[in-house]
Amino acid sequence: MAQLTYREAIAAALAQEMTRDERVILFGEDTAAAGGVFKTTEGLLAQFGPRRVKDMPISELAILGAAMGMAMTGMRPVAEIMFSDFLACCWDYVANEISKTRYMSDGQITLPLVILTLNGAGARFGAQHSQSVENWAMAIPGIKVVAPSNAADVKGLLAAAIRDPDPVLFFEHKFLLSTKCEVPDGEHLVPLGKAAVLREGTDITVIALAAMVPKALKAAEILAAEHGISATVIDLRTLVPLDTQTLLREAARTGRIFTVEENPRLCGWGAEIASIIQEEAFGALKQPVVRITTPHVPVPASDQLEDAVVPSVARIVAEIRQAMGARRAA
Amino acid sequence: MSNTQQQVPQGQEATARGEDIPEAMRLRIYRTMVEIRHFLKRANDLFLQNLVKGTMHLGLGQEAVAAGFAARLNKDDYSFCTYRGHHHTLARGVSMLSVLGELMGRQCGLMKGKGGSMHLTSVEHGLMGSYAIVGSHLPVAAGAAWSAQYRGTKQVAVAFFGDGAANIGAFHESLNLAAVMKLPVIFVCENNLYMEYTPISSVTAVKHPAADRAAGYGLEKIVIDGNNPDLVYRTAGDAVARAREGGGPSLIECLTYRHGGHSRADPAKYRPPDEVAEWLRRDPIAHYRKQLLELGIAEQTLSGIEAESIAKVDQATEAAKVSPTPALESALTDVWADGGSAWRN
Is residue B107 part of a domain? Predict the structure, then answer.
């Protein structure tokens, strides 16, 4: 075990898979010589050479289209879209082409590719470089959606995504890049579609994703220490496939479910989870499912304003306490 | 009519005859065009009988581009085409039954009814898909070419597209990427003068929507008469050879004309009658038939090909009509590589 940053784990996973499989190649804007604008691909050009690690023009259509053409002809490309906001520039490939081709071709074409992109707020970059768009991707049949919360999962999930026979949209979180944790040495794989129970509690279940996971864990500590509320914290890790078994089991156990979502309110992933839980575990619920989200606004640039809209530890604690208080009052 | 004529480069027919094309190849090209023609007419009939649902975009009149290019491709080369892709699909050797079955939504269809008219795909024939978002396949073809280059297979990728696609961002991104990486890809514009219902000239800053952009990517400007099968065949041969030898991409604009409207919803009344008449006169099949007779090929050889083509279309039609419709469960299969559509456990 070594301590790696989330950033280092991205490069480690790519190196692990590129070493293992000649078909894996990496390309994107500033990906090769610059090592990525957030230094997530540093060292890979030196290690694997310009044939396998390539800088692309600012051409998001060409980047994702080329990845698709490569994947259907025997390669396993990893295509980088610098900021997840830019997926809107090439959404045709995500929504119309990559996700639908296997189905439309009646299984003749499979597309083992990974779209690697930086998601989320925390860098004070304003509304077009700070969004959490995982819920856009979740709405499309045919693409898997992964968003890890820590370096160990980055390594394991990214490796699994590269080996997966289906297309995967892999959301790195820019706020987490410098966070560190123990990451297994050598080959490390985390299967897609398995949520992680990070903390066991008895009163409530908090379901979080990516940068909301460490905040949920911190909130759980405060709730236990200061308010006598014992929380289970689940890291969803992947939205598609969705580990509904773990969610329903937890709903049945605590009966009090909270989601913590960085995406804006409407049609955030928590809405789907709330829907599934009320449909399939209604009898076990002791209170309505509560969604803690970014309000339905663009992400503002000012640090004060950005911190005010993205769910914070304090807000998570407050909203959970309020919901619990309301329950007691009723 | 002068407008149409000025778009056809002069003197290229003569050059086309300059190179000796074997008789067997000319007959193959003729047969491909005739088969496509009869097939598309039949597809149209079946649409009118409500046996083909939805919509269709016929390549009637554009057969020479498909036949000429397909004749230059190896079995493992890649073709990418548009929603107007039936002619390219057949030209790559896909069976009439599987194409007709797909148009009719039957079990015998190429994708068993899950793709439809606009998405014909046959990987075993190198037909890597038909794309219904204008221009979206151009980067995909570049990617397939990049893959071939990386793997060192000497395969080439050809992307066919309409004049309208030349104003799409993906067209320009693909050309730049292909040129900078010297990818073995050939971009073939079938300029049929209309972007759906709108004359392409009225919405494009240059006369030749594809070829006039070639210089921007360091490529040669190539405009040919796309209704001249020999010329298409020769031009395709040059471009394929260049791509295969590592010489990089080509952009070829083939001037041609749809005999009908954009889709089955479009009677194409916006086209001047004299323009339509002129292009019908320049029909690639009639033109080639005359040429083949002049070259000494027997009338009965050609009429034999025509009769065989009609018989083949009849046979496919009858077989498609009796093919069952797909099992309803198949609507929930093949989203994922495991064959299923599950998004949860």
Answer: yes
Q: Give the ipTM.
A: 0.96
What distance in Å separates the CA atoms of residue A257 and residue A232, rounded to the nearest whole number?
10
CA B104/CA B83 separation, integer angstroms: 16
E strand or H helix at B229:
helix B229-244
How many angstroms from the chain centroid is the CA of residue B203?
Answer: 23
**CATH code assigned at B283:** 3.40.50.970
Number of CB pairs, chain A paired with chain B, less than 8 A apart: 157
What is the Cα B255 distance to its own chain's centre?
Answer: 13
Number of domains, chain B: 1
B129·A240 Cβ contact <8 A: no
Residue contact A108–B140, C-beta within 8 A: no
In a domain, B270, yes or no: yes
- CATH 3.40.50.970 matches A2-183: yes
Q: In which element (H, E) is residue A101 found? A: helix A101-104
pLDDT tens-digit profile, chain B (345 residues): 333 333 444 444 434 444 689 999 999 999 999 999 999 999 999 999 999 999 999 999 999 999 999 999 999 999 999 999 999 999 999 999 999 999 999 999 999 999 999 999 999 999 999 999 999 999 999 999 999 999 999 999 999 999 999 999 999 999 999 999 999 999 999 999 999 999 999 999 999 999 999 999 999 999 999 999 999 999 999 999 999 999 999 999 999 999 999 898 888 999 999 999 999 999 999 999 999 999 999 999 999 999 999 999 999 999 999 999 999 999 999 999 999 999 999
Check the CA dihedral B36-B41-B42-B48 and report its sign: positive
Indicate whether B164 belongs to any domain: yes
Residues of B in contact with A92 (CB under 8 A): 133, 136
Residues found in chain A: 330
Tokens of B245: 């030898």
Is residue B321 included in any domain, yes or no?
no
Report DSSP letters for A203-250, one per residue.
SEEEEE-TTHHHHHHHHHHHHHHHH---EEEEE--EEESB-HHHHHHH
The reply to whether residue B342 touches residue A241, judged by beta carbons under 8 angstroms, is: yes
Residue B81, C-beta contacts closer than 8 angstroms, at least 6 positions apart = B88, B89, B120, B127, B129, B130, B131, B137, B159, B160, B161
Q: How many other C-beta atoms lie within 10 A of the C-beta of residue A114?
A: 27
* Contacts with A56 from chain B: Cβ below 8 Å: 177
| Rounded Cα distance, B5 and B116, in Å | 36
Domain that holds residue B291: 24-40+47-312
Q: Which residue of A has its CA nearest to B331?
A: A103
